[in-house]
Amino acid sequence: MNPQKFQEQILNNAVQMDASVNFQLNGNMLIVPCPWEDDKEVTNGERVRYRGGIEVDADGRTRVKRYNVGKNGPKLETLYETPHGAVKMTRPQYRRKADGYHKAGLRRRMDEEYVYVTFKFPKKYGLALTKALYEEEADEIMSYFKTRKEETIWK
Q: Could you give the CA distance from residue 51 to residue 68 in angstroms, rounded to a whole number?
């Protein structure tokens, strides 16, 4: 199993229990299990907080849908790393061609793609060492950009 694609299991399993639901004037809902359901355990004995969407029908039927975290994958893709720096790029964005002049299909949105260069130096290095390391790593990253010149579309 790939640990990066593993999603945290919030509840123990699908538990069905009788409960009392109170709808409050400020929009809050209070769901309390009935006393005869005390033997059932929903979580591992601790309070669980999660983001979700709540849908309430006119007859009171309520659905709580959990917020899917990490479904789209990482937003930034690491292209190159140095000991204290990184070059990251946003994933390619594709949109449908909506105008009548092009064939139906996907169009790559180059104006929504960005390249980020970040450096993180510890404060204990001092100014002189930080500047020297920055110049070395900046030269290394610029040489990486020059080698990718043919592969990358530059504006």
A: 9
Q: If phi over 0 gives left and psi between -120 and 50 gives alpha, with beta otherwise, what is residue 143?
A: alpha
Top-confidence residue, 33 or 67: 33
Token code pair at residue 66: 């959990």
Q: What is the DSSP letter of 100?
A: T
Query: 96 — alpha (psi -120 to 50), left (phi > 0) or beta?
Result: beta
- The number of beta carbons lying within 10 Å of the beta carbon of residue 124 is 7
At 115, phi and psi to the nearest 5? -115, 130
Radius of gyration of the chain (CA): 26
- Average pLDDT value for residue range 136-154: 82
> What is the pLDDT, as a whole number, of residue 116?
92
Give the chain's count of helices (H) and strands (E): 1, 9
Task: Say whether pLDDT at 64 is over 90.
Answer: no
Q: What is the mean pLDDT of residues 76-89?
A: 92
Tell me which of 45 and 138 has the higher pLDDT: 138
Q: What is the DSSP string of 62-83?
A: EEEEE---SSS--SEEEEEE-S
